[in-house]
Amino acid sequence: MTRVATVELTIPPRSDYLALVRLVVASTATLADFLTDRRVDDLRLAVSEACANAVDGQRAQGSSLPIHIAIELSAEAVTVTVTDHGGGFEPDAVDPIPAADDPGRLRHERGLGIPLMRSLADDVRFTPTTNGTAVRIIVEA
Asked: What would the pLDDT profile of 77-115 be if each residue is shown by its tens digit?
């Protein structure tokens, strides 16, 4: 994969910066002529979920370190990596979400971000870092 361009963004771990992240991701992803508007929207939502999880993780740890977002464009894909300082977690250990037809789902308010990211992107990878997690979201041509 030959990188065409990279855009980097660093934000404080605050939810009020998520709109900025969505704007930058959508604007950058639009430069990839192979993505439809729907795929750009999918990527924007997946990255927003990853950033919201990063903010929540850092808030839980009491960390005020910045969250780093790197958007890489290539001829084949748009890859966004969100790196936090939230202490890390094991994505496969997250409690499963009740089925859509399960009445308990109506009371399930959290935990939808990871399944949503996985359903919207072609590939999602979670990599532990020294004091957090790097989430890599890929949308391909």
From this structure: 999 999 999 887 666 655 566 565 667 655 555 566 888
Residue 17 is which amino acid?
Y
Q: Which domains does the chain have, with CATH numbers?
A: 3-140 (3.30.565.10)
Each residue's pLDDT tens digit, 45-72 = 999 999 999 999 999 999 999 999 999 9
Contact 58, 50 (CB under 8 A): no
Burial label for 103, CB within 10 Å (0-12, 13-18, 19+), is exposed
Cβ atoms of 82 and 134 closer than 8 Å: yes
CA gap 4, 78 in Å, rounded: 10
Is the Cβ–Cβ distance between 4 and 74 less than 8 Å? yes
CA distance linking residue 9 with residue 70, whole number of Å: 6
d(CA 58, CA 20): 18
